[in-house]
Amino acid sequence: MERGGNSNEQKAATIRKWIDPEERITVQFDDQRDLSAEVTACTDQVVSLSLDTAVPHMRQEITLPLSAVEVSEDFSHYTRDPERPLKRERMMLIAQGKRPAVVY
Could you tell me if 18 and 89 are in contact, meaning their C-beta atoms sit under 8 angstroms apart? Predict the structure, then answer.
């Protein structure tokens, strides 16, 4: 997997490859780690995510500025879609700050 680089355009190009409802990425905040999420959209300024919550079938929709995230790789997880070739890693976003509160 290509590293996201430092510019928003480089990060967005890497993140856009992971916009797929059948795939998940890993997200880390300062206060929570190893969260599973789906990338729902990405521009050159922001990335929109749908995070898993403690409540089954309820997702937390958030949008983060690309300037506040670092793109990395998660070697502890692999891709899910059995119709595609297996990738032994998936994308990880490391977000600055705490996870936004979940509103139920």
Answer: no
Question: Would you tell me how many other CB atoms lie within 10 Å of the CB of residue 93?
Answer: 27
Chain segment 65-91, per-residue pLDDT in tens: 999 999 999 988 777 666 777 677 889
Three-state SS for 13? helix
14 CB-near residues (< 8 Å, 6+ apart): 1, 2, 3, 4, 5, 71, 91
> Is residue 35 helix, strand or coil?
strand
Two tokens at 59? 């997702």
- Residue 34, pLDDT > 70, answer yes
**H or E element, residue 65:** strand 59-65
- Residue 95 phi, psi dihedral angles, 5° rounding: -95, 140
Torsion angle defined by CA atoms of residues 7, 95, 21 and 89, in that order, rounded to the nearest 10 degrees? 80
Number of CB atoms found within 10 A of residue 49's CB = 23
